[in-house]
Each structure stands twice: as structure tokens, then as C-alpha cells.
Amino acid sequence: MSYRQKRIPTILTSKELLDKAFKRASNIKKKGVDRLDSTKKSALAKMTTSGDIISGTLDHYVRSFPSFRKGEEFNAELVEVLVGVDDLKKSLAALDWCAKKTSELERAYLDRVRRAAEVSEVHQGRKEFYGRLSSLVDQIGKSLKFVSEARWKLKKLPVVDLSLPTVVIAGYPNVGKSQLVERMSTARPLIAPYPFTTKGIGVGHFKEGWRTYQVIDTPGLLDRRLEERNRIERQAILALKYLADVIVFILDPSESSGYRMEDQLALLESVKKGFEGLPIIEVENKVDMVKTGSERLKISALTGEGVQEVIGRVVSLLHTTEKEAGRVFR
How many H helices and E strands in the chain? Predict the structure, then answer.
């Protein structure tokens, strides 16, 4: 499941949440058989409304954030890169705590007001409830702010369907990865920017027969150890690790990308070692500029030459992988 597929609502600040609850409650008036009964019924309705708004809203916030279940490692690690999984879990736990405490507080004060024998006792009970409710919500002010900031970052994540057979395009920057994704895709790929960069993971799709295939354009990888990689590069690593059924590795023999062929081949070898067992299709791009005598597939992402052959090889490999693994793609 992607974070855009599960809509996360706007997160209110602690003040906004309290204002919403108390404003809604302030408009409530109930009639009873006498003054005490009317006051009591109005107070009970006000307390129930304000308490339910607080607990219900917080519970909705918590449930709107997808859980990190087995099979959703991509989402979990991408969230780790963007906001930090532990910090997000702690903040959501604080919201859940407040929702539960609010419900407990509501039940206790509703019981107290029901047993009140005087109008003054009803007013005092409602006043104390409002005060303690405000204190509870104020305690999670920082958590609400963190969750709100996390929401904005997560909204920018691309829609990635983990059930589709997926091709990941990898290689150095400027070797033609994005152009190839556009050539392979039936529609212009969605390039999702991230909060800390104008670059991001691009997601496209193409169809062969009745099947839909997903194409992921990763940010450029640099040939250095994982702990030395920046966040953009780590996103590419995650895509390779959790999304790829087949990797298409793009090489630029013209070196117009600014990277020597020697360095590109070294990166290819590191990818092979790091993702042993995963099918890798080696493709040389920019055949319109340089054409080597290697046995690799030759394409021009600029003109479209050779792209259909890459698609055919990808589909063939995915079918083979599916049969060997006993996996059935949708």
C-alpha cells in the first residue's frame, strides 16, 4: 500500500483541535424538566461532544498512517529516510495515549455530572473536565506538530504498487534513465519530488497483453559505500532492494554524462554483488552517439531505437522469474 493510496487527513495543532471541540460543544443546549435537569443534560452533551471529537480525531489520525507490516519494507525504510520510523511511531503512540485518556476522562466526569445534586456541581464538573482535557491535548502538542510535518512529507511519496511486476532502471546520473522510463511507459511517468530535493523516484507503467508492468526510475547511484550515500541515493537502493523483479542497468559509453565507462562498470559490478540472484539487463544508451562492439542491448532513449527490444527482454525475464519462483503477478 502506498501512502497516497491511504489518505492522511490534515493534522490540527493542539489549539486548533481544542477550539474545534469546544466550539462545537458551546452551541449545544438541552431542555429538561427543571433547571437542574436542563443544566445537567446540556453539560453531559457538551462534554460528550468535546471529548468524542478529541478522541475520535486523534484515533483517526493514528489509523490514517499505514502500519509497517511484513511485506511493506519499502514503505518502512522510505519513511525512515524521510522522517524516522521510531520518531513517527512515538508521536503516533502519544496521540493514541491521549485518545484513550480522553475517553477515560470523559467517562469519569460524565458519571460525576450525572450524580450531581446541584447546578453548581454540574458547572464545576464540566469546567474541571474542560481544564483536564485541555491539559491532555496540550501535552501532545509537539507530537501533533511532528505528525503534521510527517504527513506533508509522506504525501509526496510516489504511488508504488507492490503487487505489480516491477522493473527498476539503475545507473549513474545523466545516462538516460528517465528518458528510457518515459519511452517504456504508456503515459508520462509521475515524478514525485521529495521535501529535501527536486528529484525523486519516478513511476511509470506499460502493458504487454493483459498485464500491467511497473517501471521505476531511481535517482542516480554513486559508486561508494551505503553509509556514505546521501538520501537520494538511499532511495535508489531501497527501490532496487524491495521493488525490483528485474533491473535494467543503463550505461553511457559516450561518457557525455560526465562519468567514465570504467566507473560505470565498477558500479554495475557492485550492483551485481549487492543484489545477487536478481536478473540484470545491461543496456548501452546513446547509440546515436557511440556504438560499441559489446553484446549488450543497444538503445537510444532519445530516439526510441532499441527500446522495444528492452521491453521484450524485460517481459521474458519476468515470466521466467515468475515461473521459477511460483509467483503469480496480478
Answer: 10, 7
In angstroms, rounded to a whole number, what is the distance separating the alpha carbons of residues 78 and 81? 5
**Which residues make Cβ contacts (< 8 Å) with residue 113, sequence separation at least 6?**
40, 43, 44, 47, 121, 122, 125, 126
Strand order in the sheet with 246-251: 190-191, 202-208, 211-217, 166-170, 246-251, 280-284, 297-298
At the top level of CATH, which class does the domain 14-155 belong to? Answer: mainly alpha
Element (H, E) at 250: strand 246-251
Q: Is the pLDDT of residue 201 over 80?
A: no
43, pLDDT greater than 90: yes
- Residue located via cell numbers 500500500: 1
d(CA 182, CA 206): 10
**Of 214, 189, 211, 210, which Cα lies nearest the Cα of 200?**
189
d(CA 145, CA 13): 7
pLDDT digits (tens, 9 = 90+) for 73-110: 777 777 787 788 899 999 999 999 999 999 999 999 99
- Flag whether pLDDT at 72 surpasses 80: no
Look at 152 and 18; give whichever has higher pLDDT: 18
**pLDDT value at 11 more than 50:** yes
Closest listed residue to residue 141, CA positions, set 99, 71, 94: 94
Instruction: Output the CATH code of domain 166-325.
Output: 3.40.50.300
Number of alpha carbons in the 13 Å side-chain half-sphere of residue 224: 8
Rounded CA-CA distance 1/87 in Å is: 21
Q: Give the domain ranges of the chain.
A: 14-155, 166-325
Mean pLDDT for the stretch of residues 15-32:
97
Write the DSSP string, 208-219: ETTEEEEEEEPP
Closest CA to 49 of 95, 102, 97: 102
DSSP 120-178: HHHHHHHHHHHHHHHHHHHHTHHHHHHHHHHHHHHHTS----TTS-EEEEE-STTSSHH
